[in-house]
Write a structure and sequence with these properties.
alpha/beta; 6-stranded antiparallel beta sheet; Glutamine Phosphoribosylpyrophosphate, subunit 1, domain 1; 18 helices; about 625 residues; binds 5-amino-5-deoxy-1-O-phosphono-D-mannitol; 3 domains; Rossmann fold
C-alpha cells in the first residue's frame, strides 16, 4: 500500500508532490507528509489522517517550494496512524528524508544496532531505520545513490524507498524491491511515483523499474543500477491514457465515474482481438500455442474481486475447452504445496499488477516450472513483468478502492483467454468463437442499458440504509456474482453481507433468514440451463416463506420469478455464461448508494487501500 512521489526539476517541488499525492491517496489515507530541499536545507511536514490535514498544516506553516521533494500517503503497517509515524522519516541531524512503501522485515535488529550507536528513533515504524542508515552511509561515501545501494543490501522484505539529502539538493534517489515504483521523464525534470497517475499531468514518458534496482533522478537524466552499482536494463514506455482519465470528471465519486465507464472499458478490452482471417488474436500473450495445447490443467490465482472473476472464468474455461480449471485465493495457494508442473497453465488476475499475495503465488508457480499468464490492467506493473505472458485489460485507471470496471474487463479477458484456448486446442470452431466475441461486443450496450435503469435500485438501497445484514444468493456463474455483491457491500457500506451458492441454502444458511431480511438473488437465464433457473425459483420461494424480503435480479422476460420478488431488478438477456457482465452492475450501484446513504466514504472506505502490496 502507500503512495510515494518524488520530483526534481524547475517547478515547485512542493506543488508537484502535493498534486501527485492527491492522485495517489487511493493507496492509503492514514497520514500524509512531504519533504523539500531548498538552499541546502531540508523542510518537512507530516500529519495523521487524510491529505487534506497536511494541506491545512501547510496553509498555516508554509514550506519553501524547493526544486526537489518527496511525498507519501500512508496505509499503516508498523505503528498506528499518528503524526510521529507518518512519513517522511528524517535522521537525527534532519539532513536525510525517506518515504517507504512495504515492510522491512529485519527492522528490529537494525533498530537495536542504531540505538547502540547513539541514534534516537522517534517513531514505531520500520521505515525510520532507513533514514538513519542512509545518513551513516552518506557520511562516508558522500553520494545518496551509493548510500541507498549500500543500505538496500542490508534490508530484508518488500520495499520501495525514495530519499533526498540536503547535501545533494538536485538529486532524488529511489530503490525498489517488490513494491511498485515508476519513473517519469520530462523536459529538464524527472518524477518517481508508485503509479503513473501521480505524474501523468506532466509527462507520459515512463520507465519501468525492475526488481532490486536503484534509480538516481537529476534534472538532466535518470541513472538506474542494481543494488551492486552495475548499470541496469530498463524498459521505457508511453502511458496511453491522459490526465483527464484520472479525474472525477463531474461525478461525486471515482466509483460512480468508473461504473459509468464500464461500457467503454468492455469495448476497449475487446478491440482488435479478431484478425483479418477471422481468428482470435491475443498479441501480448507471448506463450506459444504449442504450450497452450499441451496444458493439462489451468490454475487461477487472484484476490478479492479479481478472485471472483477467476471463479467465473472456471465455468467458461471448463465448458469451452474441457481443460480442468482450479481457482484459488492467491494468499492460500503457495502455502498448501499445490501440485504444479510444466504443463500447468497458471493465470494470475490482478487489476493493479502489484498485489503481493498474487505476486508471491505466481513466483511460486514459476519456481515449480508452471507457465504463468497475467491478466492485468496496469502496464509496467510487477505481475505482468514477472509472468511468461500477459493479457492486458483496457479499463483505464481505476482509482476508487472498490473494483468495478476492472472486474468487467477481467471477465472479458478471461472469456477471450478461454476462447483462445478453445481455438488452439480445437475444442471451439472459428464461427463459435466469433459468435461469442460478437455477444461480448453487444454486452457493452447492454451494460449501458442497465446503467440507464438504476434509479429504482438506488431508491431501494436508500430504503435499506438502516439494515444490518444483506444476503446474496446465486447459482452457476451467478454464485461468484453473489460473492462479488456481498464483497462490495462489506467494503463500502460496512454491513454484514454474505454470498452463498443457492444450492447450499438448506445445508445451513437458511437458518439466517428472518422477517424482512433483505436477500438478493441472482437468477440464471431461463434459457440455456433452465433446470438451474427452476431450482433457484424454488429457493426464492423457500426464503420468502420464511420472511425474507426478496430482491430478485432476473432477465427481461423471465416472468416465472415475478410472483416471488418483493423487488425486481431487470437485466438484458445474455448468453448463460456471459450473464455476470450485466448482473454485477446493479450490485455495484446498490453498494455505492447504500454507502452514500450511510454517510460512508465511497472512494476511500475505512481500513482499506486500493493495492495490497504487503502479505
Ligand atoms: O489489484 P488487484 O486486482 O490484484 O486487487 C485485488 C483485490 O485487492 C481487489 O479486487 C479488492 O478486493 C477490491 N477492493 C474489491 O473491490
Amino acid at each position: 500500500m502507500c503512495g510515494i512521489v518524488g520530483y526534481v526539476g524547475g517547478q515547485s517541488a512542493l506543488d508537484v508532490v502535493i498534486a501527485g499525492l492527491r492522485r495517489l491517496e487511493y493507496r492509503g489515507y492514514d497520514s500524509a507528509g512531504v519533504a523539500v530541499l531548498s538552499d541546502g536545507s531540508m523542510a518537512a511536514a507530516k500529519k495523521a489522517g487524510k491529505l487534506v490535514n497536511l494541506e491545512k498544516e501547510l496553509d498555516g506553516r508554509p514550506l519553501p517550494t524547493g526544486s526537489a521533494g518527496i511525498g507519501h500517503t500512508r496505509w499503516a503497517t508498523h505503528g498506528g496512524p499518528t503524526d510521529a509515524n507518518a512519513h517522511p522519516h528524517l535522521d537525527n541531524a534532519g539532513r536525510v528524508a525517506v518515504v517507504h512503501n512495504g515492510i522491512i522485515e529485519n527492522f528490529a535488529p537494525l533498530r537495536a544496532e542504531l540505538a547502540e550507536r547513539g541514534h534516537t528513533l522517534e517513531s514505531e515504524t520500520d521505515t525510520e531505520v532507513v533514514s538513519h542508515l542512509l545518513a551513516e552511509e552518506f557520511s562516508s561515501c558522500g553520494d545518496l545513490a551509493e548510500a541507498m545501494r549500500l543500505v538496500c543490501r542490508r534490508l530484508e522484505g518488500a520495499f520501495t524507498l525514495v530519499a533526498v539529502h540536503a547535501d545533494q539538493p538536485d538529486v532524488v534517489v529511489g530503490a525498489r524491491r517488490n513494491s511498485p515504483l515508476v519513473v517519469g521523464v520530462g523536459e529538464g525534470e524527472a518524477f518517481l511515483a508508485s503509479d503513473v497517475a501521480a505524474f501523468i499531468a506532466h509527462t507520459r514518458s515512463a520507465i519501468e523499474l525492475g526488481q532490486d534496482q536503484v534509480v538516481e533522478l537529476r534534472r538532466d537524466g535518470v541513472t538506474v543500477t542494481d543494488f551492486d552499482g552495475a548499470p541496469a536494463d530498463v524498459r521505457s514506455y508511453h502511458v496511453d491514457w491522459d490526465a483527464s482519465a484520472a479525474e472525477k470528471g463531474g461525478y461525486d465519486y471515482f466509483m460512480l465515474k468508473e461504473i459509468a465507464e464500464q461500457p467503454k472499458a468492455v469495448a476497449d478490452t475487446l478491440l482488435g482481438r479478431i484478425d483479418g482471417g477471422g481468428s482470435l488474436r491475443l498479441d501480448e500473450l507471448r506463450i506459444p500455442d504449442a504450450v497452450l495445447r499441451e496444458a493439462h490443467k489451468v490454475v487461477i490465482v487472484a484476490c478479492g474481486t479479481a478472485f471472483h472473476a477467476g471463479l467465473i472464468a472456471k465455468y467458461a474455461i471448463e465448458h469451452w475447452t474441457r481443460v480442468p480449471c482450479e481457482v484459488e485465493l492467491a494468499s492460500e495457494f503457495r502455502y498448501r504445496d499445490p501440485i504444479l508442473d510444466q504443463r500447468t497453465l497458471v493465470i494470475a488476475i490482478s487489476q493493479s499488477g502489484e498485489t503481493m499475495d498474487t505476486l508471491m503465488a505466481l513466483r511460486h508457480a514459476r519456481a515449480q516450472g508452471a507457465r504463468v499468464l497475467a491478466v492485468c490492467n496496469t502496464n509496467g506493473s510487477t505481475i505482468p513483468r514477472e509472468s511468461d505472458g500477459v493479457l492486458y485489460t483496457h479499463a483505464g485507471p481505476e482509482v476508487a478502492v472498490a473494483s468495478t470496471k476492472a472486474f468487467l474487463t477481467q471477465l472479458v479477458a478471461v472469456y477471450l483467454l478461454a476462447l483462445y484456448l478453445g481455438q488452439v486446442r480445437g475444442t471451439k470452431w472459428g464461427d463459435e468463437i466469433r459468435s461469442v466475441v460478437r455477444d461480448l461486443a453487444r454486452i457493452a450496450d447492454d451494460v449501458d442499458r442497465v446503467l440507464e435503469t438504476m434509479e429504482p435500485v438506488r431508491e431501494l438501497a436508500r430504503s435499506l440504509a438502516d439494515k444490518d445484514t444483506v444476503l446474496f444468493l446465486g447459482r452457476h456463474v451467478g454464485y461468484p456474482v453473489a460473492l462479488e455483491g456481498a464483497l462490495k457491500l462489506k467494503e463500502l457500506a460496512y454491513m454484514h453481507a454474505e454470498g452463498f451458492a443457492a444450492g447450499e441454502l438448506k445445508h445451513g444458511p437458511i437458518a439466517l433468514i428472518e422477517e424482512d431480511l433483505p436477500v438478493v438473488v441472482v437468477v440464471p437465464s431461463p434459457r440455456g440451463r433452465s433446470v438451474l433457473h427452476d431450482k433457484i425459483v424454488s429457493n426464492i420461494q423457500e426464503i420468502r416463506a420464511r420472511g425474507a424480503r426478496t430482491i430478485v435480479i432476473a432477465e427481461e422476460g423471465d416472468e416465472a420469478v415475478t410472483p416471488y420478488a418483493d423487488h425486481l431488478i431487470r437485466i438484458p438477456a445474455t448468453p448463460v455464461l456471459l450473464q455476470p457482465m450485466v448482473s454485477t452492475v446493479p450490485l455495484q450501484v446498490f453498494a455505492c448508494e447504500l454507502a452514500t446513504a450511510r454517510g460512508n466514504e465511497v472512494d476511500q472506505p475505512r481500513n482499506l487501500a486500493k493495492s495490497v502490496t504487503v502479505e
